[in-house]
Amino acid sequence: MKEQLITKKEIPSELTVKIEKLSNLGLGIAKVDGYVIFVKNACPNDIVKIRVGKKNKNFANAEIIEVIEPSPNRIEPFCKMQKVCGACQLQFIDYDAQLKIKKEIVQDTMRSIYGHDVEVRDVIPSPITKEYRHKIQYPIGQTKDSKRILAGYYKTGSHELVNVKHCPIQPAYCDEIIDFIRNNGNITGYDESTHRGELRHVVIRTSYANKKSLVVLVVNSNKISNSAKELCNLIFDNFENVSGVGINFNDKKTNLILSNKTEIVCGQDFIEENLCDKTFKVSVNTFFQVNPLSADKIFRYVKNYIQNNFDKPTILDAYAGITAFGICLSDIASKVVSIEEVKQSVELAKEVIDDNEIKNIELHQGDAGDFLSNETALGRQFQITILDPPRKGCSLNSLDYALKLTEKKIIYVSCNPATLARDLKYLKEHGAIVEYIQPFDMFPHTYHIENVAIIDLKNVQIPEIKLPY
Q1: Are residues 443 and 304 part of one domain?
Q2: Is residue 100 part of a domain?
């Protein structure tokens, strides 16, 4: 007989449960006769009394009333704002336990989406777990009566702004810059509900290598006001480590933080960062990993893997950003071909390539799918393809083209286990073999995890691709 599971009507509003594990969104999972309850701020092996909120057919959400018996891995968060700020979901869990949890998240995701067990190696930890975040994006608001500027993060699952005075996962001087903005200038904070107010966000890109910062004020306008220009000058004049201050214009009703239009008011429009003993230029709109030290580990790992298994291969660097992979791999490759859609990233990559006198990188600016289509039509082949797409993963066309263009290996770098598993499943259906997945902790104290998948193509059946010409 089919097992009769408990229904949502039978779940009481308060009950005591044991947390089994964490979901891919960092929520504790408890089960009552097969009915799943997701619990905020829960640690595996906690025994907790919970208050159940909205009940759906197959699951409910709940909050902890009392920790009756804490897990051995539950610790006191080092940030007083952890429970109200939505940035560090796992900070109350011991760091070694966080790494094990993240490995389990990748394993569970692979089983549920990819459909088979695949070797997931132990997570390589971040070299530092405080002050690691080198891209800061603070929403800005203001108090209703006093009009005092507020800056911080949103509470989890809401647009309620938490005014953060000190954030220990970002460099301390960023707190000083944000606090200066709160208390200086005549600029107004943004009100999302009315679409009024000038300052929407403050974005800071900082360099681990030289501690320099690029500060960008995102304004609800299409031109620079006197108040915004004055604040830019004040920031530049009062902070020696700020190498540039600019304005990004975003007057649309949108959740996107940055528009494509930025104007530098003072100083430079980039900072410099080091990866694999090479210096990169990073602008406000450039995709670049937020944790430079963990990023360096990933790039060196991929470089060592290629160097140990190939002799001067040809490499395709797709979704290249500022061509960080291509530049890092250039001295072990015979040729690197790079494709990136964002024009400014390609321009910065060209500067780095010229500065380092690298001669074997071929840069292309445009859509990855269109470019791969052209390469397929030309019959070009690469021994290795690096795929490093955004969180949404690759399009099916891009995967088809990668299979057709690549002779030996695809190295897929992903910040989203779900889309990685989806894309690996598609590659597997065409004969690709996932050798293993190596996770890296790019985002300590969060449920996010970066993965490097090594994919062998020796048994691949090339998919039929309808070329547009």
Answers
A1: yes
A2: no
Q: How many CB atoms lie under 10 A from the CB of residue 6?
A: 12
Q: Write the CA distances from 448 to 67, 99, 123, 294, 329, integer angstroms.
A: 25, 11, 12, 13, 26
Cα–Cα distances in Å, from 236 out to 148, 188, 389? 22, 19, 34
Active site residue 415: yes
Residue 436 falls within a domain, yes or no?
Answer: yes
> For 266-304, what is each residue's pLDDT tens digit?
999 999 999 999 999 899 988 888 999 999 999 999 999
Stated pTM of the model: 0.92
CA distance 61 to 50: 10
Q: Residues 412, 455: contact at Cβ < 8 Å? A: yes
Task: Please report whether residue 85 resides in a domain.
Answer: no
pLDDT of residue 465: 57
Residues 162 and 208 in one domain: yes
Q: Which of 85, 174, 276, 415 is catalytic?
A: 415
Cα→Cα distances 96→10, 21, 70, 83, 378, Å: 37, 15, 17, 20, 49
pLDDT single digits (tens) 355-384: 889 999 999 998 887 888 888 888 889 999
Q: Is the pLDDT assigned to residue 330 strictly greater than 90?
A: yes
Number of domains into which the chain is organized: 3
The pLDDT tens digits for 91-115 are 999 999 999 999 999 999 999 999 8
Question: 145 and 60 share a domain?
Answer: no
Are 403 and 325 part of one and the same domain? Answer: yes
CATH code for position 122: 3.40.50.150
| Bridge partners, 410 (sequence order) | 385, 455
The answer on 311 and 166 residing in a single domain is no
| Residue 70 and residue 141 in contact, taking contact as beta carbons nearer than 8 Å | no
**In 3-state terms, what secondary structure has residue 386?**
strand
Listed range (11-15, 124-128, 449-453) with the worst mean pLDDT: 11-15
Residue 426's domain spans which residues? 111-126+291-456
Sequence-distant (≥ 6) Cβ neighbours of residue 413 within 8 angstroms: 298, 302, 325, 386, 387, 388, 450, 451, 452, 453
d(C-alpha 184, C-alpha 164), whole Å = 17
Least Cα distance to 272 among 169, 362, 352 occurs for: 352
CATH of the domain at 252: 2.40.50.1070
What is the per-residue pLDDT for 9? 66
Q: Is the pLDDT confidence value at 313 over 50?
A: yes
